[in-house]
Amino acid sequence: MIKCLAIDDEPLALDLIEDFIGKIPSLKLVSKCDNAIVGLEILKKTHIDILFLDIQMPDINGFQLLKMIEQKPKIIFTTAYSQHAVTGFELDAVDYLLKPFSFERFKKAVDKAQKQIETESKLEKSDDALFVKSGYETIKIPISTILFIEALKDYIQIFTKEKKHLSLVSMKTIIDLLPAGEFIRVHRSFIIPLKKISRYSTKSLYIGDIKIPIGESFRKQLQEALIKNNIHS
Fold first, then answer.
1. What is the pLDDT of residues 158-174, one digit of tens each?
2. Nearest CA-CA partner of 206 in 221, 190, 220, 218
3. Which runs of consecutive H residues, i.e. helices, occur in the chain?
4. CB of 221 within 8 A of CB of 184?
5. Among positive and negative, which fits the CA dihedral 111, 114, 120, 121?
């Protein structure tokens, strides 16, 4: 059973999410709450698989709440404001539902979250390799062969010298499996190994001849990592 939590300051929105969850047998609504402070306490005490989260709320908004959570569940934003979509996906949201949304649209978002949960439960790692589900196979990918990782809609692509591997895994999950300090996220769509950077500027870097963009919100973190690892352009 997949455990869900809904946080929204609109009672009607909470009731709708509860109704939709009740129509999907694999989901269980653990709780619903109308403010982020109460929701944060639930998240600290209870394992949640999927969090349905509003953005515009009093006191603490949805984005601020996420920064307070160490072990993040799968996030599905539910909001009336489309202008926050880019920020939502930078935070690795599974989906972004614009109010009012239909049951069909809700279920599509849930299906994506469920697939990610199922795939990630089968992920393994050793000291020098990842074991990633790609299609119907589990592939062993030596960490030393990874050139970069790119987000592609609901999937990620892991590029090596020989080929690329497609897997239904979130960017946050994959970077948590990679050696700390050796890989870094430089854009909402790209993770790279620091030692494979051949050159860089303020807006892009190169892995060999492959150009990778540097996202503005990731620039400071990358610069600090380059200095720490004594990497110069």
1. 999 888 999 888 888 89
2. 190
3. 11-22, 36-45, 62-67, 85-90, 103-120, 171-177, 219-228
4. yes
5. negative
Q: What is the pTM of this model?
A: 0.68
For 7, the 3-state DSSP assignment is strand
Query: What is the spatial distance between Cα 220 and Cα 203, in angstroms, rounded to a whole number?
Result: 12
Q: Which two tokens stand for residue 230?
A: 């004594």
70-75 CB contacts, 8 Å cutoff, 24+ apart: 72/172, 73/5, 73/43, 73/48, 73/49, 74/49, 74/50, 74/113, 74/116, 74/117, 74/170, 75/51
Gap between the Cα atoms of 226 and 145, Å rounded: 20
